[in-house]
Design a protein that fits this description.
This protein is α/β, with parallel strands linked by helices. The chain has helices spanning about 10-20, 45-55, 70-80, 135-150, 195-205, 220-240, 255-260, 285-300, 320-330, 340-345; strands spanning about 1-5, 35, 60-65, 85-90, 155-160, 245-250, 270-275, 310, 335-340, 345-350.
Length: about 350
C-alpha cells in the first residue's frame, strides 16, 4: 500500500460516485448536502464558478461560507445560478481579534481560576471566547446578524462556536496538549464572569464558587446551558423574521454537547443542525457516526433536520462512502463536509 494525494477533480469524481448521483437533481428531494468554505477575497468569479460546478457535480447543494460581506455579495449570484444555497458561516462567541471586543476586557469568558480569555487563551491562540449573557456581547452579535441579513439573496446564517470554551476536548486531542480530561477541571471550566455569578446568585441564593465541584450542581450547569440557548433563540427570531434559515455547527450529540461545551442544541429553534461527528477525534469507528447521528435524530424528534458533519481528511478510500451511507441510514437528511480545503488542496487516500 502506498499513499497518493488526489487533486480536487479526482476527489469530486470519488464523491459523486460514492453519493450514487451525478448531480444534485438526482438526489432525494429532501436531502441536502453541505460544505464549509473559508472566504477568499482573492478568488475571481471564474474560479468561484469552477468550484461551484465541481461541488454541484459532487452532490453538494448548499455552501457554508465565511461571513465576509464582500465575498458573499460575489458568490451568491454565482451559486444561485447552479441552484446552490449560500449560508453565511459566522463565528459567534469565539471571536479572536474582534476589534470592538478587545476594547472591553470585561466581555471575555472567565474560568473557575479567575483567568480571562482576554489575556490567557486556552488551548490555542485563536480561542478568545466572549460571555453569552453580557448584553453588550449580545448586541455585538446581533449587529453582525442584522448586517448579514441585509445581503441580497442570502439563504441563511450558520452559527459556529456558539457555546462555551471546551471544558472537555475530544479524546484524540488530549495528547496534543499533554492533558487528561476525565472530568471538568477548573482551568478549562468557563462561565465564571462576575455578571454570570451575580445573576446566578440572585436567582439561586448561592455562588457556584462555594461548591467543591460546581459541575455537579444542576442549577449551575443549566444556567450556562440556558445563556447559550437564549442567545441562539433570539438570533433565530431575527433570522426567521427575514424568512431566512438558521443552522448551527454543534458537537456530536446533545448529551455530549452539554457535558463538553455547555451546548443544549436540541433546545434551539434551528432549521437544521450540523453536528461535527468527526469519529477519529474520539478514537471511534464509522459505525459511531451512525450511532451518534441516530441519537441526535431521536433527541430532536423532528424539530429540525440533522445533517451529519464529516471530517474529510480522516475518510480515506471507501470510508467516505460508508460514512455517507451510515449517516443517511441513521436518519440524517444529508451530510456536510469539512472543509473545502480538503477539495482544493489534497485528500489523502491509500491506493494499492
Amino acid at each position: 500500500m502506498r499513499k497518493k494525494f488526489l487533486h480536487i477533480n479526482a476527489l469530486i469524481a470519488i464523491v459523486a460516485l460514492l453519493c450514487g448521483c451525478s448531480s444534485q437533481e438526482e438526489q432525494s428531494a429532501s436531502q441536502k448536502n453541505w460544505i464549509w468554505i473559508h472566504a477568499n477575497e482573492t478568488k475571481t468569479e471564474q474560479e468561484w464558478n469552477a468550484d461551484f460546478a465541481k461541488y454541484k457535480t459532487a452532490g453538494i447543494n448548499a455552501i457554508l461560507i465565511g461571513a465576509n460581506e464582500k465575498v458573499l455579495n460575489t458568490v451568491i449570484p454565482l451559486a444561485h445560478q447552479l441552484n446552490i444555497e449560500v449560508h453565511a458561516w459566522m463565528w459567534t462567541l469565539n471571536r479572536p481579534g474582534d476589534t470592538t471586543a478587545l476594547q472591553n476586557p470585561e466581555w471575555y469568558s472567565v474560568n473557575r481560576l479567575g483567568e480571562s480569555c482576554f489575556d490567557k487563551r486556552p488551548y490555542v491562540d485563536y480561542y478568545q471566547w466572549l460571555c453569552p449573557s453580557i448584553p453588550e456581547v449580545q448586541n455585538l452579535i446581533f449587529t453582525q446578524v442584522n448586517n448579514l441579513l441585509e445581503i441580497e439573496g442570502l439563504d441563511g446564517i450558520h452559527l459556529d462556536y456558539v457555546r462555551y470554551c471546551d471544558a472537555i476536548l475530544p479524546t484524540d486531542l488530549w495528547s496534543n496538549y499533554n492533558i487528561v480530561q476525565d472530568k471538568v477541571y477548573a482551568e478549562w471550566d468557563y462561565g465564571y464572569n462576575p455578571s454570570n455569578l451575580k445573576a446566578f446568585e440572585a436567582e439561586y441564593g448561592y455562588s457556584p464558587l462555594s461548591l467543591d465541584d460546581p459541575n455537579t450542581d444542576a442549577n449551575w450547569v443549566n444556567f450556562r446551558l440556558n445563556t447559550v440557548t437564549q442567545l441562539v433563540n433570539q438570533i433565530a427570531t431575527m433570522v426567521h423574521s427575514k424568512n431566512k434559515a438558521l443552522t448551527a455547527a454543534v458537537f456530536p450529540s446533545p448529551e455530549m454537547s452539554r457535558t463538553m461545551v455547555y451546548q443544549a442544541w436540541d433546545q434551539w429553534n434551528l432549521d437544521g443542525a450540523l453536528p461535527m461527528i468527526y469519529h477519529n477525534f474520539y478514537k471511534e469507528d464509522i459505525a459511531w457516526i451512525g450511532e451518534t447521528t441516530a441519537e441526535g435524530v431521536a433527541t430532536v424528534n423532528n424539530k429540525f433536520p440533522i445533517y451529519t458533519g464529516l471530517f474529510v481528511p480522516n475518510l480515506e478510500g471507501d470510508s467516505l462512502k460508508k460514512a455517507f451511507d451510515t449517516a443517511l441510514q441513521s436518519g440524517a437528511k444529508g451530510w456536510s463536509l469539512f472543509d473545502a480545503a480538503s477539495f482544493e488542496t489534497i485528500h489523502e487516500s491509500k491506493i494499492n
